[in-house]
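Input chain follows. Return structure tokens only.
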Amino acid sequence: MKTGIKIALFTAAAAAFGSCVREEQFPIEPHITYKSFTNHGDGSATIVFSFTDGDGDIGIEEGETGSNFFLYYYYKDANNNFVPYDNPMTQVQDTLTRAYAVSPIYHVNPGKKKKSSKGEIQILLNPPVFGAPETFKFACLLVDRAGRQSNLELTPVLYP
């Protein structure tokens, strides 16, 4: 009997403590951090970023068009400087930009207080990911539904 009471008290205390845990708070501007790059060997690759957002308004809603995650491609030139990769589509010196639409993040309590969010964004880069350069970098940017831009995150040197 005493064991049952102890278990019940422990369970009640654990439930009470669990309900007191504060939700993580983040600034309302999104923030991204580079995590990893995986070359799949077939010309494709996956790049992964973690993100935080204070009001959870990440992602393009169904039916909307546009992009909210941008990868800017830089390669190492003969002088060992990382320079923008010229966009062959525009024939203008312009950084080759890959734009993606990140799906929206939905909360369990729609219509109530906006919640901070954190998670990972995984982007599959389809062939051809790489041009001729042996080393390259991406500068990356995330935009939330309110139009607030994240930090510009620069990857380390990547190899095809």
